[in-house]
Structures are given as structure tokens and as C-alpha cells.
Amino acid sequence: MTATYITLDWTDLILAASLVVLNGVLSIWLHLRMERQFLIAAVRMCVQLGLMGLVLKTLFALVSPVLTGLAVLIMVLFAGREIMARQERRFRGFWAYGLGTGAVLFAGTLVMLFALATQIQADPWYHPRYAIPLLGMILGNTMTGIAVGMNTLSERVARDRNAIETMLALGETRGVALRPLVQSAVRNGLIPIINAMSAAGVVSLPGMMTGQILSGVEPLEAIKYQILVMFLIAGGTGIGVVIAVHAAAARLSDARHRLRLDRLELE
């Protein structure tokens, strides 16, 4: 039996959008004041995805390593901005943007290149049909983990300032004084991807797998790809969170083993 590919028209999307309108109505009814946020988020999503569709169509036609690399760079830069925006206590100066961006750049591109060179084996290896979607899935989750980890660290360092400085005054190194907070921050950053893997297939059907099945791909083949992607996401998230949190901890101290909260924009 041949699988049927179901196409969507604008009427289908408008009907689905009515559910977002319902959220806005509920917000007004319950006085949540979130209807404007729903509207902005929905419009922003549609515009961004529409533009991405046009960009991908061009990239697929040209298959240029330079253009693919430029698209990757732009995605990473926007991911870094989102990480910075989610920090309640940001680092001062370039570090507010640079730490998260550097970590997500290294983790995302490393895992993407690993997948392209081994499991996917695209020809050419930089083909945007494979590189861009893979990076997008890895970046989204790695970005969340890094943001949570860095935010947890900065919040807890500011909260436990006296205890940390007491340990440093008694002769402990910055590594020892900050270790429990670093461990807690890394743990918090990894919880979302652990939960996602634990719930996949039982509580939820991940988006990539669902999309492939709806487009006519055999379920077992879609499952194999989804498992691959989840493993790649887990790897990228782990690498990114560890790098970002340890770099942030180093920035919050110095070589003389002093706590440097002056490098944070404290409330």
C-alpha cells in the first residue's frame, strides 16, 4: 500500500490558527494579559518560518558551502541572543553575549559535522538539505540547556555569595568553592533533554518523527531518524552546557581565587 502525502493549503493553516485565537480569548476572559504575547509570537513564528522557507529553497538550489556556512552562522548568532535574553543576571560587556554564543557554536557545529560525516553521509557533506535541519534541531535544545545552566549558576552564585567568599577566605580554591554550584547548574541544564528522551514514544511523539509519518515515511524508518536526532541533541546539549557553565564559573572568579560578582549586572 502506497503512503499518501497530505498537502496543506491556507485554509488548513487558518483553521489551526483559530486555536491560537482561542488562547487569546481565554487570556482576555481570565484577565491574564497574555493575548498580545500570543499574537506577537504567532506572527513572528509565521514570518520567521516563511522567510526560512524561502532561504532554504534558495540554498537547496545552489548547494553552496559558503551560503550554507553563512546560514549556520546566522542561526548560531540568533541562538546566542536568545541565551542572553533568558539570563536574569547577565555578564557585563561582550561576555553577556559571547559566553553562550561560543558554547552553542562549538557544541552545535561539532555535533552537526559528526552526524554529517558518519551517520548521514551527505554528498556533498555540506548539503543544506541535511546540515540546516540537523543544526536547527540541535541548536534549539542546546540553547535551552545552556540558558538554564548559565542562569542557574549566576543566580546561585549571587545568592550564596557569603558562603563562597568564606570558603575562599579559609584557603579553598575557586574550583572547590564553586564546584557544588557548577554541578547544580550543569544538572539543571541537562534536565530538559533527559525529560525529553524519557517521555519520547510514551508521553509524546517528537516533532520530527510526527512530521515524517504524516508525510508518508514508514513509522520504523521515522523512529530510527528520531532516535538518531535525540542522541545528537543530547550530545550537543551536554557539551554546550558543560562548556558554558564552566566558562561562566571561570568568569565569575579570577586567577587569585576571588569571587568577581562585579562582572555581573546585579539587581
What is the radius of gyration computed over CA atoms, rounded to a whole number of angstroms? 22 Å
- What kind of sheet is the major sheet? none
The structure class reads: mainly alpha
Q: Stretches where pLDDT falls below 50 for ≥5 residues?
A: none
Q: Characterize the overall form.
A: globular
Mean pLDDT, nearest integer? 92
Output the number of helix runs: 9
Through-space gap between termini: 63 Å
Approximate strand percentage = under 5%
Question: Order of helices and strands, N to C?
Answer: HHHHHHHHH
Q: Fraction of residues in helices?
A: over 70%
User: Using DSSP, what is the number of strands?
Assistant: 0
Number of domains: 2
Short description:
The chain is mostly helical and 267 residues long.
What topology does this entry show?
Blueprint: H1 10-29, H2 35-62, H3 65-85, H4 95-120, H5 128-159, H6 161-169, H7 174-199, H8 207-214, H9 219-251
Structure report:
The protein is an all-alpha fold and 267 residues long. The chain folds into 2 domains: 8-62; 64-263, no CATH class. It is 76% helix and 0% strand. It has helices at residues 10-29, 35-62, 65-85, 95-120, 128-159, 161-169, 174-199, 207-214, 219-251. Helix 4 (95-120) packs antiparallel against helix 5 (128-159). The longest helix is centred in the last third of the chain and has 33 residues, at 219-251. The N and C termini lie far apart (63 Å).
